[in-house]
Amino acid sequence: MHYFKLKGKYLYCEDVQVEDLAKRFGTPLYVYSQRTLREHFDKIKKAFKAVSPLICYSVKANSNISILKSLVSRGAGLDIVSAGELYRAMRAGCSPKKIVYASVGKTAEEIKQAIKLGILMFNVESLSELAQINAIAGNLGKKVDVALRINPDINPKTHKYITTGRKETKFGIEIGSARKVFLKRDNYPNLNIVGVHIHIGSQIIQVGPFIKAIKKILKLFKELNKKNIKITYFNIGGGLGIIYDREKPQTAQEFSGKALPFLKEKGLKIILEPGRFIVGNAGILVTKVLYIKENPSKRFIVVDAAMNDLIRPALYGAYHKIVPAKKVTRSQGYKVTRKADVVGPVCESGDFLGKDRKLDVAEGDFLAVMGAGAYSFSMSSNYNSRPKAAEVLVKKNRAYLIRKREDCRDLVGKEILL
Ligand code: LLP
To answer: pLDDT at position 336, please?
Structure first.
């Protein structure tokens, strides 16, 4: 569900015409719908209402501070993985008491800073990190709350690059070691080991793997309970899949329907960390058709956005729907032509946004790459010395620039000419 709809022949974001935005702000341009992202946040909150969860939006999915603010002002906490994300969280006005901090490679400096700010907890990914946080907390004279990120060794049935809860991945602590840590928690006098965190992967379509992982952890809780070790927090991660093409992902309601019976009335505080579910379909990438070129075996639509703006197709073979910002009919001189690859200007054959698409467009027209709210701008780069795109947030009938387009000075701003 989202608020990018065709009205007549024009694509709209809420009550604003996308083509107008392209002309006003230039392209490539990211356009986000605030209503879409807020409704997704509300949906998941409502679905899990029975356990009053803390929903920590996963900043890496889309880290623009205005996007964060839209969610924080609605009660969201944030899931972060770096000092940069912590900085963004503070700029967006998030209370440190609603911040959880994952990452397999937190530096001593990052840990120190987060402790000083008083975040809710670290999600700890190794025994060495646990010792490190314990030592730093001791030096600062603080007692710090942590959760152990357990790797439950569950196959989430998604792309292998975004599978994170199998034993061959780098994430989390294996369940046996985690059990030992709980039993020997006195070894960490400066830590309160208050919870368990799991996150088994991203773009997960079926509810089964989530439930398997949850059950595995609840079994551990039961064992620990018998030894009088009480767990306060259970962070069940993010990972809910969305529709890019013809996927039929579980809804928030279906997910909670299956999960809640296991989570309710256990006296646990539940945390969720959705990223894509909230922003994925709340954004599009608008791009201009520069050239159309054909050879006997192929037709190409060359656009002004590229893999540096949106790397998901190149990196994961991900599918994003591509639609014209203005629908043009055959009678207006357009004819349905051969299928074409939609490609960018970057010097790599992997630089494509879509393959074999049937699109009625002419040079100078605008296209919208759908489902570009999550892991799109946030994964963009300056490859080929391309300035990063601008970002616009639409609220009903108004559009706000929330990130200026970079220019060439930004590209070399940090460089030193010898
Ligand atoms: N929590 C943790 C610890 C995570 O590592 C992630 C995502 C999330 C929550 C949020 O997951 P989500 O609800 O968005 O699935 N770049 C890839 C996705 C990488 C996901 C990384 N971790 C893509 O474009 O598909």
So the answer is: 60
Q: Is residue 272 classed as helix, strand or coil in its secondary structure?
A: strand
Would you identify the CATH topology of the domain 103-272?
TIM Barrel (3.20.20)
Among residues 13, 56, 94, 347, which one is catalytic?
Answer: 347
Atom of ligand 1 nearest to the CA of 379: 16
Q: Which tokens in the block code for residue 253?
A: 């309601």
Task: State pLDDT tens for residues 303-357.
Answer: 999 999 999 999 999 999 999 999 876 666 566 668 999 999 999 999 999 999 9
CA of 238 to the centre of ligand 1 (A): 7
Strand 144-151 versus strand 173-174 pairing type: parallel
Residue 123 Cα to ligand 1 middle (Å): 15
Whole-number pLDDT of residue 330: 60
Under-50 pLDDT residues of the chain: none
Tokens of 365: 């027209």
Judge contact between 85 and 60, C-beta under 8 A: yes
pLDDT on residue 160 = 80
The domain spans of the chain are 4-31+280-412, 103-272
Is 347 in the active site? Answer: yes
**Cis amide bond preceding 274, omega within 30:** no
- Radius of gyration for the chain, computed over Cα atoms and rounded to the nearest angstrom: 23
List the residue whose alpha carbon is closest to atom 24 of ligand 1: 375
Predicted pLDDT of residue 331 = 61
47 alpha carbon – ligand 1 mean position (Å): 20
Cβ neighbourhood burial of 93 (10 Å; 0-12, 13-18, 19+): exposed
pLDDT of residue 33: 98
Evaluate whether 4-31+280-412 and 103-272 have a shared fold: no
Fold designation for 4-31+280-412: Lyase, Ornithine Decarboxylase; Chain A, domain 1 (2.40.37)
Q: Which two tokens stand for residue 14?
A: 């809420």
Closest ligand 1 atom number to CA of residue 375: 24
Rounded to the nearest angstrom, the distance between the alpha carbon of 379 and the centre of ligand 1 is: 12
SS3 256: helix
pLDDT confidence of residue 211: 96
Q: How far is the CA of 172 from the centre of ligand 1 (A)?
A: 14
Kindly state the greatest CA–CA separation across the chain: 77
* Cβ < 6 A, ligand 1 pocket: 58, 60-61, 79, 102, 162, 199, 202-203, 237-240, 273-277, 312, 316, 374-375
56, 58, 59, 285: residue to mutate for ligand 1 pocket, most atoms within 8 A of CB: 58
